[in-house]
Each structure stands twice: as C-alpha cells, then as structure tokens.
Amino acid sequence: ARFRFLTCASAFAVSSGRRGRASASDSSACSAPGASGSGREGARLRCRATKAGGLAVEENVPLAGYCSFGIGGPARYFAKARTLEDVRDACRFVRAEGLRFMVVGKGSNLLFDDRGFDGFVLVNELSFLDGDIPQAFPNRAKTKGSGGDDDVVGRGGTSSEGTLRVRVGSGYPFNTLGQLLSSAGWGGLEFATGIPGTVGGAVFMNAGANGRETKESLVSVEYVTKGGESRELHVGGGGEEGGPKTRFGYRTSPFQSDEDFGAIVAATFELRADPEAKARARQYMQRRGASQPLKEKSAGCVFRNPSGCSPTNLSAGALIDRAGLKGATVGSAQVSCVHANYLVVASGNESSRPSRDMKDLIALVKKEIKQQTGVDLQEEIRIVPFQAEGME
Ligand SMILES: Cc1cc2nc3c(=O)[nH]c(=O)nc-3n(C[C@H](O)[C@H](O)[C@H](O)COP(=O)(O)OP(=O)(O)OC[C@H]3O[C@@H](n4cnc5c(N)ncnc54)[C@H](O)[C@@H]3O)c2cc1C
C-alpha cells in the first residue's frame, strides 16, 4: 500500500492498496440496515433461518448494518435477543455447536472483519426500563424573575436520601438513559449523553467521558454465563470505592477477562438528586458537537489515552494531531480532520476492503507515534477477528 500524509486543508489522493479481490461484505445476498454490496457471489449466499429453542437464527447476515463504522462481512450465525430466554437459547446453541460467540450492542466500539465473523453474533435488544423516572425536584420553583430552567430553590418528592435506583435492560440506549435521568434532575450519568452505545456495552467497556465512568454509578450487573446460567455482580452504590468496583478500570471491566462470561442482561444504577445535572448534560453535548466528527462513520476514539507514565503526558488525540496525521488516509479510512483520535470512513472513498484499510491506518498511526514520540498507542476499540486466534 502507498500512504501519503496530507494536511486536512490539502486535497487527498491516496492509494488504497487494494488487492483486487471482492470482500465477503460485498458478496452476501442478505439484507441488513446500512449493508451494501451484492456482488456475483451474493447470488450464491442465502440467509437461511434456523431455530435455537424459541430464537430465530439466521445465517450469513452482513454485520455492516450493526456497527457505527458500517463495516463488516457476514456473521455465520446471527440472531436478535429481546428476552432473557433468547439469550439463554443463544448460549445453549453456541455451546451445542461449539461456536465462537459475541454479543453486539450498537456496535459503536467495534471493527468487524471484511470477511465477517465465523461464529454466532447476538444483537442485544433487551431494552426495558423498570418503572418511571420521577422528577428529582418535583416541587421546584424558579427564582423570581430569572426564568431559568435550572434555578432550583425548592426540593421535594425524592427519597429522603435524595437518591434513585434504576434497573435497565442491557440493550437500552445509554445515551437516552443519560438524557432521561439528567433531564429529571438525577446526576451521575450525565456523561452518557452522546455515547451511542447500549447499557450493556457501556458496562462491558466501562465507558466514560468528562472525567466520569460507568462504574461510578453502577450498583449491580445481571448477566448470564456461557452455559446460560444467571449471575449477578454486586458492584456497590454510587460513589463507593473498593470491592468489585476496583475490578473496573479505564475502558475495562471484569467481564472482559471472565472465561465463563456470556452476556450482560441488565444493570442497576444509583443516581443522586442534582440540580445541575441537566445543564451539565447539555454542556457535554455541546462540547461533543463542537469537537467530534459526529456526522461521520466512526467508533469514537480509536486509541486509549496513554497512561500517566507516558513520556509526553498528552492525550492520544493530541499526539496524533501533533504528529501531523490529521487527514492521513488509507483507502476508505481516514484520520478525522476534526478530532485526531477518531478514525472515520471517508465518504466517497469506496473500498472493497474497508476493514483492512482501517486496520492499516491504525497500524500506520501507531508506527508514526512510536517513531516520533516513543509512545506505544493501544486500541480502545475492539477489533473482531474473522476466526479465532491461530485459525487464520
Ligand atoms: C461518536 C462516538 C462517540 C463515542 N464516545 C464515547 C465516549 O465518550 N466514551 C466512551 O467510553 N466511549 C465512546 N464511544 C465508544 C462506544 O460508544 C462505547 O464504548 C459504548 O459503550 C459501546 O457500546 P455498544 O453497545 O455500542 O457496544 P458494542 O460496540 O456493540 O460492543 C463493545 C464490546 O462490548 C461487548 N458487549 C456489548 N454489549 C454486551 C452485552 N450486553 N453483554 C456482553 N458483552 C457486551 C461486545 O461484545 C464488545 O466486545 C463513542 C463511539 C462513537 C461512535
């Protein structure tokens, strides 16, 4: 592949290093939202449906429509879970067939392979929310003459401790949860506004922003094992430290290293009444709008920020920006000109191997940063291999 470094102000003309072969994502005849391509091989591939208990399982479903990059070939087996029993059925099927298994939320932190996934993909749609969300300040009055929404002078109606516990399905949109809670005056998940994943994805990744993380408000997580058995992890109340909470780290959770883990099905959060919550959430959204390429296809920040012991003390985005890599392009993959830690699918740059392009761009960025600064950047996004390690 031939790469060229150009500034964002320049015109781009970069070779994609195509190998002249169609990718699996071009070849499936299945349809999925956002999926594109129907090459010649497509006519030969068909979405066959089968049953796993009560769960409808399809074959060869393109994954491009199930992730925010819009990239990915077909999943060998594919189903959508709307109930706990669906999840259990999927686990049993996977175990009986000896398949690789992965749960997908909104796919906003994933890079699938051009050839797809040689296993079972379960898209999580367990999107219930237990009960209503009450107003934290139902008797609030506005300061005379101010007219401001956020001027709270009276409190009332909340529990005596001023806290609220909310149990929510793991497929519930994290962004919506943050918005609903902060609008009702509950603080703790304001940072979730603008994070386009599910609650399950946020717990699994310990998603965070603006100095806050998911674990901080997490009370407990209900999940199933690979064998379909129900389990619960008690994490602790809002603000508590120690115990299981310490097993959550920067974009990591204990589930990532649990060999027996199957899927998160629900989570309970504890929020506190906070008259500033709504304004804070609004401010976070405005900041995102101004600093992130929200209209482009991405998976958010691709690289973790280097740890405090990094020689530069700069964020990953700042390192990439200073290295002059904004706008660097490989095929259809490009370092965003708006936020250097966002790698985006460049509109108009068609490629038959967009996942390969993205991986090549990731490798290019890592190499440049290592050479220029000595820092080893690590991926925050999860790169999903087509086959298990050692099989390719
Ligand atoms: C525009 C944009 C902005 C973003 N901003 C942020 C940000 O500010 N902070 C941040 O932390 N992230 C951010 N992200 C990344 C992403 O939204 C988060 O990591 C999010 O939590 C992922 O949720 P998801 O449902 O999309 O998970 P997916 O991408 O579908 O999955 C991610 C991982 O979680 C696992 N997983 C998901 N759900 C379950 C489940 N129910 N059970 C078991 N495993 C599960 C998957 O198997 C996978 O390994 C951003 C992404 C985009 C596109």
Automatic annotation (TrEMBL):
Catalyzed chemical reaction(s): UDP-N-acetyl-alpha-D-muramate + NADP(+) = UDP-N-acetyl-3-O-(1-carboxyvinyl)-alpha-D-glucosamine + NADPH + H(+)
Pathway(s) where this gene product acts: Cell wall biogenesis; peptidoglycan biosynthesis
Cellular compartment(s): Cytoplasm
Taxonomic superkingdom: Eukaryota
NCBIfam families, per database record: murB
Keywords, comma-separated and alphabetical: Cell cycle, Cell division, Cell shape, Cell wall biogenesis/degradation, Cytoplasm, FAD, Flavoprotein, NADP, Oxidoreductase, Peptidoglycan synthesis
Broad class of the protein's primary localization: cytoplasm
PANTHER family with a match to the protein in the record: UDP-N-ACETYLENOLPYRUVOYLGLUCOSAMINE REDUCTASE (PTHR21071:SF4)
The keyword Acetylation is annotated on this UniProt entry: no
Compositionally biased intervals (Low complexity): 20-35
Cofactor: FAD
Organism: Chloropicon laureae
GO biological process: cell division; cell wall organization; regulation of cell shape
Source taxonomy: Eukaryota, Viridiplantae, Chlorophyta, Chloropicophyceae, Chloropicales
Region (Disordered): 20-41, 141-160
Role according to the record: Cell wall formation.
Protein name: UDP-N-acetylmuramate dehydrogenase
